[in-house]
Design a protein that fits this description.
Largest sheet: 3 strands, antiparallel
Radius of gyration: 14 Å
Number of helices: 2
Structural class: mainly beta
Shape: globular
Number of domains: 1
Low-confidence stretches: 2-22
Mean pLDDT: 77
Strand order of the largest sheet: 1-2-3
Helix content: under 10%
Distance between the termini: 13 Å
Length: 100
């Protein structure tokens, strides 16, 4: 996910796994017939805490998706998220790149 300035904060995302105590978003593929069943879980996170405001706060080392929109180009994912229970952020990514 790419950094995006907007609202009260911005973010970066990394393909490297965050520390064990961190909470982030791994985006595993789910079974269509039983979406509670995870089909595959990778070693890398799609989204995790990196910036200081995501790591230090009421609940540190936590980012959590709150909602998303799809851009008018049909490829840009706008992910709205909370960070360390003190900030809101917006991260963007290409849906095409996330699926590869």
């Amino acid at each position: 996910m790419r950094p995006t300035r907007g609202g009260s904060s911005s973010t970066t995302a990394s393909a490297t796994p965050p520390p064990a105590a961190c909470t982030g978003w791994a985006s595993p593929p789910l079974d269509r017939e039983g979406p509670a069943r995870c089909l595959l879980r990778g070693d890398e996170w799609v989204f995790g805490p990196q910036a200081e405001y995501e790591r230090i706060g009421d609940v540190g080392d936590v980012v959590f998706p709150c909602g998303y929109t799809l851009g008018t180009d049909g490829d840009t994912l706008n992910l709205y998220y909370g960070a360390a229970d003190i900030a809101l952020g917006l991260a963007t990514a290409s849906v095409r790149e996330l699926l590869h």
